[in-house]
Design a protein that fits this description.
Elements lengths: L1 H5 L12 H5 L3 H5 L8 H10 L8 H12 L5 H4 L3 H10 L3 H13 L4 E7 L4 E4 L1 H4 L3 E4 L11 E4 L7 E6 L7 H9 L28 E6 L14 E9 L4 H10 L2 E7 L15 E7 L6 E6 L7 E8 L2 H17 L7 H10 L3 E2 L4 H14 L5 H8 L4 H16 L8 H22 L3 H11 L2 H36 L4 H14 L3 H15 L7 H7 L1 H10 L4 E4 L8 H14 L6 E8 L5 H9 L14 E7 L5 H4 L3 E7 L11 H17 L2 E7 L3 H20 L6 E7 L6 H25 L20 E3 L5 H9 L2
Parallel strand pairs: 2-12, 5-7, 5-8, 8-9, 14-16, 14-17, 17-18, 18-19
Antiparallel strand pairs: 1-2, 1-6, 3-4, 6-7, 9-10, 10-11, 13-15, 15-16
Helix pairs in contact: 10-12, 14-18, 14-19, 16-17, 17-21, 19-20, 21-22, 23-24, 27-28, 28-29
The structure holds guanosine-5'-triphosphate (GTP) and magnesium ion.
The site of magnesium ion (MG) has 5 residues, from α25.
């Protein structure tokens, strides 16, 4: 396709782009160069992965550059329409990348490709799998009394669909009107790309026939909400007379279809179409000065009734449309989930992206596991046998053999050998328990073909989220509420914290089990079948890391790192990368819920889990490759990014473990890192002090081990609009605070050699303080890896 070769994507039409290639750090990231035509998809993809709401305007930079250098008249042919760019990128991405892109588009509140046309094969594909990742929170009118939110996976939500299509040429922008229709009164947002936004009148080529979808989800504030119940909106790009397959699909699935057309035209005959929707005509007078809304009776004849008389301005039309949609929503239209629309798609000759063999058998394999789950707690105790009390016991024994806290007056060697015996006992218990049938199914899913593994893991991840979402969402809200309103209720907070852990069931629990099984089978004789099955698991896990899945490094429930497992996974990684695994480690630290995971996701385009309440537990790592051309400059072959659980100084005087926990997390992070990012929220001065103290103590402790000083950056969040003067003051305050803490900490740990903060970290108050989440990865990397 001409467009693909113009933007350098033609090779990827066959050989699809993957998530890891998109996230790889390349020369463009560190040079901050102007975007050229061939690097346009790369720039767009990276911005999108960083959830940058201006991602679509990369096209503008390029088209501007082209416009200025070419003759008037031919300029628009050198530029590319942003919709074409989106279509091209989706046509050239693999299934996993498509899903990741859609999730980021949803975060940016962009409309999402729903029916994707491929002009080469003349096929249309419904992007159901791509959209499966979207989970959103909203407050529908049936929750008005309690003012509570529901959190749903949108493709499963029963929501009416309203479609907007066009016949013939139109002298106003349907997308512009839709954006106004979906924007809240005080805040305009461009959900759909429109003519005036970025691309002037650059003609569309490959995105003709594209149907996009967006959801309007009420927030519960009736002064702001345009509609009080959720509604899905589809927008067909192109003329319904040309794209009749898409049009007929929309007529079957929508509650209402709005057809924009010219007054003078005869509307496409609707008789042959299986029409389930109410049909409205938005007609324009030939000069485009008036709009009229008419309702069309599809049966028995095509008579129309005028709903609203001539309107002069677009604003008026938006109001009329809004009332019309709202009335339609109130009269209880047919609701349908996107998942169920797939049936109509197949009937209309539209392909569905998840119908492929790989995706379907992965789904079956994941379903086999999730079908056995009635309650999460029961599943964890009965099927994930090596975890729970056994693993907690082992973790304690391991730590105790170094700390010797309970040794009392015993001989240390005797005590250690007693601990060893206990450990052996527990290991034997693990061995006796063996692996459960769901665990065997999981292992099967992980070791099957590479392509199927990613699908399997995503299906399982999503199915597990579906199982625990409702309970978790409620508990997290309670947790946040309680922390805000009664921080003194420490016991109750700790109790909810525990309940959250009990309710959580994710891939990490299955991999924890892998770690345990791997460890105890490694003691078995080499010929043992059990050992043989487990032997190749670290290699699969290493591959998974390279595919962009996060891996748990530190088990937050048992407070332990499964050393053998992690070491062997990393050794395999070294092998898979042909010994080119010189890594730089970037870690984040900060109080809970300050936005640590979000910050890493936006800096690097990653997918650490994010959520209100307390979300990350333990520590997770993700890998990002470094392009060959910049490896020397950056001094590494890949970046390892580690997300950690929030420090909880407010729970410090709880039981023994929670007291130790923050120390463990901070020491681990500081000990591993080349770069530590400390994320501090300016909302609470007391919390900043507590967090800084923990971090500074960890720096001091690590200094003693002879580790090279890590670079440390402080990110002050939620205050991106502070004036420069105040910002400077804060930085000075922070530096003074750090110096004072270092004096205290070095005294407490008797490290008299340490006198100033720069003895333990590389820190320059002017360069290493950042405000808000707006500082870009580009600047950051540029300064701190090349500098
Ligand atoms: N308004 C706003 N919200 C943010 C920002 N960063 C994060 N959030 C929201 O804050 C909540 C917590 O974000 P996370 O990234 O999960 O925070 P965290 O520090 O990783 O939390 P824990 O892992 O539980 O310690 C989420 O609902 C985010 O959407 C930000 O810069 N601005
Ligand atoms: Mg987090």
């Amino acid at each position: 396709m001409e467009v693909l070769s113009k933007i350098g994507l033609d090779d990827h039409y066959e050989n699809k782009l993957t998530l890891s290639t998109v996230l790889e750090i390349d020369r463009n990231d560190i040079s901050g160069k102007k975007t050229e035509m061939e690097s346009l998809p790369g720039a767009f993809l990276k911005k999108l992965m960083m959830a940058n709401a201006n991602a679509r305007s990369v096209c503008l930079a390029s088209s501007d550059a082209d416009n200025s250098s070419s003759d008037a008249g031919s300029d628009s042919y050198n530029a590319i329409n942003p919709l074409d760019l989106t279509t091209a990128v989706f046509l050239c991405s693999d299934a996993l990348l498509q899903q990741a892109l859609v999730q980021k588009m949803s975060l940016c509140q962009f409309a999402i490709p729903f029916l994707l046309p491929d002009h080469e094969t003349r096929e249309i594909t419904m992007m159901l799998w791509s959209m499966r990742g979207i989970v959103r929170k909203f407050s529908p009118s049936y929750h008005a009394f309690t003012k509570s939110f529901v959190e749903e996976r949108l493709v499963l939500s029963q929501v009416p669909l309203v479609s907007f299509v066009r016949q013939g040429k139109s002298n106003f922008s349907k997308s512009l009107i839709l954006n106004k229709l979906l924007s809240n009164p005080k805040q305009h947002h461009d959900t759909f790309c429109h003519r005036n936004m970025t691309c002037c009148d650059i003609p569309r080529r490959i995105s003709d026939g594209l149907v996009e979808i967006a959801w309007y989800l009420p927030c519960g504030n009736r002064n702001v909400d345009r509609f009080t119940d959720p509604v899905a909106v589809a927008n067909l790009r192109g003329d319904i007379r040309v794209f009749d397959k898409q049009f007929s699909f929309l007529c079957q699935t929508s509650a209402a279809v709005y057809i924009f057309c010219d007054d003078t035209q005869n509307i496409k005959m609707l008789e042959g179409i299986d029409m389930k929707a109410e049909v409205f005509l938005v007609t324009t007078s030939s000069q485009g000065k008036f709009f009229t809304l008419k309702k069309m009776a599809t049966k028995p004849s095509l008579k129309t009734t005028t709903v609203s008389q001539k309107k002069r301005s677009e604003e008026d039309l938006v109001k009329v449309l809004q009332t019309s949609v709202a009335t339609m929503l109130e009269t209880c239209p047919s609701k349908i989930s996107v998942e169920n629309m797939a049936k109509s798609a197949r009937r209309s000759g539209i392909l569905v992206d998840e119908d492929g063999e790989e995706c379907q058998s992965a789904r079956k394999n994941a379903g086999k596991i999730t079908r056995t789950i009635t309650t999460v707690a029961e599943f964890k105790s009965k099927q994930l046998l090596s975890q729970g009390s056994v693993w907690k016991g082992l973790s304690w024994l391991e730590k105790e053999s170094y700390r010797l806290r309970k040794a009392g007056r015993q001989n240390v060697e005797h005590y250690r050998s007693y601990l060893k015996t206990q450990e052996k006992e527990l290991r034997r218990k693990q061995e006796r328990l063996g692996k459960s049938p769901p665990m065997a199914d999981f292992l099967h899913g992980v070791v099957t073909s590479e392509a199927q593994r990613s699908h399997f893991l995503r299906w399982l991840e999503m199915d597990l989220e579906n199982l625990s979402r409702q309970d978790l969402s409620g508990l997290r809200d309670q947790y946040t509420d309680l922390r805000r309103k009664s921080p003194q209720a420490k016991e109750r907070i700790a109790e909810i914290d525990m309940n959250i852990s009990d309710c959580c069931l994710g891939l990490e629990h299955f991999f924890r089990e892998c770690g345990q099984l791997y460890k105890y089978t490694s003691y078995l004789p080499e010929y043992s079948q059990q050992r043989k099955v487990m032997e190749h698991l670290p290699a699969h896990c290493a591959q998974m890391l390279l595919d962009g899945f996060p891996v748990e490094l530190f088990d937050g429930d048992a407070s332990n790192i499964p050393m053998k497992w992690i070491t062997d996974v990393l050794a395999e990684l070294h092998d898979v990368m042909h010994s080119k695994s010189n890594v730089k480690v970037v870690t984040i630290l900060g109080a809970e819920n300050v936005g640590k995971s979000t910050l890493l996701n936006t800096m690097f385009g990653l997918r650490f889990s994010v959520g209100g309440g307390r979300c990350t537990r333990g520590a997770y790592l993700q890998l990002i490759g470094v392009g060959e051309d910049v490896r020397n400059e950056l001094g590494c072959d890949c970046l390892m990014v580690i997300d950690t659980e929030g420090l909880k100084p407010h729970q410090m005087n709880q039981d023994d473990d929670s007291h130790e926990r923050d120390k463990d997390v901070a020491t681990l992070a500081v000990g591993l890192s080349d770069v530590v990012i400390v994320n501090i929220s300016e909302d609470s001065a007391a919390e900043i002090k507590d967090v800084l103290e923990i971090v500074v103590q960890a720096f001091v402790r690590m200094h003693d081990t002879g580790k090279i000083r890590p670079v440390c950056h402080f990110v002050h969040t939620h205050k991106s609009d502070v004036p420069t003067r105040e910002r400077k003051e804060r930085e000075t305050q922070l530096s003074a605070q750090l110096e004072q803490m270092i004096a205290t900490a070095s005294g407490a740990e008797r490290k008299h050699k340490i006198t100033k903060i720069s003895d333990v970290i590389e820190y320059d108050p002017d360069a290493n303080n950042w405000c808000g989440n707006t500082d870009t990865q580009t600047t950051w990397l540029h300064l701190h890896f090349t500098g």
